[in-house]
Design a protein that fits this description.
Layout: H1 2-25, H2 31-43, H3 49-73, H4 76-82, H5 90-103, H6 106-111, H7 117-127, H8 132-157, H9 161-197
Helix pairs in contact: 1-2, 1-3, 2-8, 2-9, 3-7, 3-8, 5-7, 8-9
Length: 198
């Protein structure tokens, strides 16, 4: 984490973009901690929130689109051969396949908050030939919620971000479930209100 801090301090938004894109691709970079760290740096006045959100969103989407393209063009042989070099072990791939079969394309949206699945859901979407337009819609929605959540957490704790960085990494799944549940509740309530108006 110290090395990441050095890169973020020296290269700012460029480092954030590159590190996040690589993390989404599967390179061992703690994505949640990276974004939260930057959120803490925003609270300290080093960067701007809107710019950071745009950069984290673009970094996430870049990683997700590269992974999708690799999955679609090359398929599973790529993961079987080179997956071990970026933490995509056969066990993780099997778990991701089961998750993808169970939840379908929605696993792209929810997968952001499940360590390991985030790195594989894009490959699985490409391998299963999910239409690009639907993939982009779900990946963009997931990226926006994921990046906003962890930037806000980092910003909220400000100078104390390092005290909770590891805790956040362990709790990212629970945070994702809570946010997803909240979005579902809002959509259901909005749908019911629109029906009543009709």
């Amino acid at each position: 984490m110290t090395e990441i801090m050095v890169y973020l301090t020296q290269y700012g938004y460029i480092a954030l973009f590159i590190l996040l894109a690589l993390g989404i691709l599967g390179v061992p970079i703690p994505d949640e901690t990276l974004i939260a760290t930057f959120g803490g740096m925003i609270a300290q006045g080093h960067f701007r929130f809107a710019s950071a959100l745009a950069v984290t969103f673009l970094g996430s989407m870049t990683g997700m689109l590269i992974s999708y393209t690799l999955g679609r063009k090359i398929g599973k042989p790529l993961l079987d051969r080179y997956g071990k070099w970026v933490r995509l072990t056969p066990k993780r791939m099997h778990s991701a396949e089961k998750w993808f079969k169970r939840y379908g394309s929605w696993s792209i949206l929810f997968g952001y908050f499940v360590p390991g699945l985030r790195h594989l859901s894009a490959y699985m979407a490409g391998i299963s030939k999910l239409p690009l337009s639907r993939y982009i819609m779900l990946a963009a929605a997931g990226a926006f919620v994921f990046c906003t959540t962890f930037l806000l957490i980092g910003h909220a704790v400000g100078y104390h971000w390092s005290d909770i960085a590891m805790m956040m990494e362990r709790s990212s799944f629970k945070i994702g479930i809570m946010i997803t549940a909240l979005i579902v509740v809002i959509l259901v309530v909005a749908g019911l209100l629109m029906r009543k108006k009709k």
